[in-house]
Amino acid sequence: MIEIKSNERLDDLQFNNLQIIQEIDGYCFTSDSIALANYVKVMRGEVLIDLCSGSGVIGILAHYKSRFKKTYLVELQENLADMSRRTLEYNKITDIEVINSPLQGISQKLGTGKADCVVCNPPYKKCGTATKLNENQSIAIAKHELTVTLEEIVKEASRLLKFGGVFYTINKEERLADLIVNLRKYGIEPKELKIRRSDKGANIIMLKAKKGGKSGMTISLV
User: Fold this and answer.
1) E strand or H helix that includes residue 143
2) Please, which residues bridge with residue 9 across strands?
3) Domain tally for the chain?
4) What is the phi/psi pair of residue 78, to 5°?
5) Side by side, which strands form the sheet with 96-100?
6) Measured between alpha carbons, how far is residue 190 from residues 41, 124, 157, 187, 218 in Å?
7) How many Å apart are CA 176 and CA 182, to the nearest integer?
8) pLDDT tens across 204-214, in order?
9) Is residue 122 one of the residues assigned to a domain?
10) Domain assignment present for 12
11) 89 in a structural domain
12) Which of 15, 64, 84, 98 is deepest in the core (most CB within 10 A)?
């Protein structure tokens, strides 16, 4: 029997009868996570690494929609990693593995050139911005660069990817320049930019980039 704690609930992912464990008052995935998972498109039988995986929703959905051979969920926060492991048990998933570890240096643990695809829904906010931190530490870490920076994410993604491998990420439009600068710094070329309009503030951008890719990027509204 898989333990569902008193502060947790089971949510239906509305795909393949998959269920996910989430905290009632803590970190929960948003529509951004679902949009990014749906954006990932690769060949079957490849290896996916989900950085800053949280409750595991992106890695789990992308794994089943693209039929990856193996998926790794990399998450720093122990409580979220534990929820992910129990979610995998609940759904009887054996070809996804949770790595509870800092993101920095994860390529040394998993191996350089390990992945055909890396995906990341990162913290959107830089440290030191005027935005007030959430009182819930787990949510604050998910939203703000308290434990990892955008550059560190891109650096590890580059090390993890095979030549020709693809990187998918999502962010607010205010971070687009930072994202492109860091991608090119570490040899990952932006190839597709999708803009999701928002009536609540900054638009959301989703970006696909290719390690060792040629220059040239398409832009579209979604």
Assistant:
1) helix 137-143
2) 22
3) 1
4) -60, -40
5) 96-100, 70-75, 47-51, 115-120, 161-172, 204-211, 188-196, 218-221
6) 15, 18, 13, 10, 9
7) 10
8) 999 999 999 99
9) yes
10) no
11) yes
12) 84
Tokens of 104: 């920095």
* pTM of the predicted model as reported, rounded to 2 decimal places: 0.95
- The C-alpha atoms of residue 24 and residue 51 are separated, in whole angstroms, by 23
- Summarised one tens digit per residue, pLDDT across range 172-191 is 999 999 999 999 999 999 99
- Measure CA of the first residue to CA of the last residue in the chain; give whole Å: 41
* Three-state secondary structure of 75-141: ECCHHHHHHHHHHHHHCCCCCEEEEECCCCCHHHHHCCCCEEEEEECCCCECCCCCCCCCCCHHHHH
**47 within domain boundaries:** yes
CATH number at residue 112: 3.40.50.150
Q: Which of 61-75, 81-95, 126-140, 156-170 has the lowest mean pLDDT?
A: 126-140
**Domain range for 172:** 30-221
Q: Is residue 38 very low, low, confident or very high in pLDDT (cuts 50, 70, 90)? A: very high
